[in-house]
Specification:
- This protein has 2 domains: 2-120, 3-Layer(aba) Sandwich (Rossmann fold), CATH 3.40.50; 122-151.
- Helix 2 links the parallel strand 2 (32-36) and strand 3.
- The chain is α/β, with parallel strands linked by helices.
- The protein has helices at 20-28, 47-52, 61-67, 101-110, 128-143; strands spanning 2-5, 32-36, 56-58, 70-72, 90-93, 113-116.
- It has a 6-stranded parallel sheet with strand order 3-2-1-4-5-6, with helices on both faces.
- It is globular.
């Protein structure tokens, strides 16, 4: 299988769906990985790290979509990507069907196989566990006397 890692283009989004360590594991299991140039820069992973892990770095989302059996990104597709999907291609990303009927129409028209990342994790979202722990820590911090709490 050819697995494509898309660069997230949503404003303020710096995460990447797959780290070089995960790429190394995917490649070790006999798959090919295509990483869009710059896909991990915001998260601290340079293209050379993806190359060292066994990925091939390509320069456009269009090339990722054209060559990959499965494409993945952290956030939802951009409208420019809707027409790049194809029948039978697997998509993993954040999908918000209730809030984005245009995206739903594009997914249905493409006949791709779409999985929503937020429903593919044991906590409902890969962010839920971290957010829950962070929330508990902030709650504890607010209870400290130095922050006006009762200690």
């Amino acid at each position: 299988m050819v697995f494509g890692i898309l660069k997230d283009t949503k404003r303020g989004e710096f995460r990447v769906i797959c780290t070089p360590s995960e790429v190394r594991e995917i490649v070790a299991n006999g798959h090919e990985v295509l990483a869009q140039a710059g896909c991990g820069v915001g998260a601290g992973f340079e293209d050379v790290a993806y190359l060292a892990a066994g990925a091939r770095v390509v320069h456009s989302a269009a090339e990722i979509f054209a060559r990959s059996d499965m494409v993945a990104k952290v956030k939802e597709l951009s409208p420019e990507e809707y027409t790049l999907l194809r029948k039978g291609q697997i998509l993993l990303g954040c999908l918000h069907p209730a809030a984005n009927p245009r995206e739903v129409d594009a997914l249905l028209a493409s006949e791709c196989i779409a999985f929503t990342a937020e429903d593919s994790h044991r906590h409902g979202s890969p962010n839920c566990e971290a957010a829950g722990k962070q929330g508990a820590l902030f709650g504890l911090e607010s209870m400290l006397t130095i922050n006006g709490g009762k200690g």
